[in-house]
Design a protein that fits this description.
Elements: H1 3-19, E1 26-30, E2 36-41, H2 44-47, H3 54-66, E3 75-80, H4 84-92, E4 97-102, E5 126-129, H5 133-147
Parallel strand pairs: 3-4, 4-5
Antiparallel strand pairs: 1-2, 1-3
Helix pairs in contact: 1-5
């Protein structure tokens, strides 16, 4: 499956988040065989938890699926550039590759504000930004316009 197809699965989750009144961010984690082993969407409002970001939920599910906290050979797809908390979790989980859609100029920790993956934390995931960027960005723009 191509990177865009996995991102499309993350976009479906982002749309579910938006339908539930959450900021539309979705995430999937894929193992080395190409199977989706973790899914997440923003749930901060529903769970009343600051840490209920799409990536955090997907990482938790992927770890449970594998029975291990190490996600070395896995790839994470997320519709919005990870924040510092999520980038830290990606580093700590040893995720091998990260693909994200839209950039986050206010809190993005993969190049927009800072790139935590370039710091000396002992693990540097491969990083590709801008996958399905227009569609991911439009979801966010539409959501925030609806709030105004």
């Amino acid at each position: 499956m191509a990177h865009e197809a996995y991102m499309e699965e993350a976009i479906i989750l982002a749309k579910e988040a938006m339908a539930a009144g959450e900021v539309p961010v979705g995430c999937v984690i894929v193992d080395a065989k190409g199977s989706v082993i973790g899914r997440g969407r923003n749930r901060r409002e529903a769970d009343k938890q600051a840490s209920a970001h799409a990536e955090m939920i997907a990482i938790s599910e992927a770890c449970q699926t594998l029975g291990d906290w190490r996600l070395n050979d896995c790839t994470l797809y997320v519709t919005l550039e990870p924040c510092p908390m999520c980038a830290g979790a990606i580093i700590n989980a040893r995720v091998g590759k990260v693909f994200f859609g839209a950039r986050d100029s206010s809190i993005g920790a993969c190049g927009s504000v800072i790139n935590l993956f370039m710091e000396r934390f002992g693990h540097e995931p491969e990083l590709v930004g801008g996958v399905s960027e227009a569609e991911c960005g439009a979801l966010l723009s539409d959501f925030f316009k609806s709030l105004r």
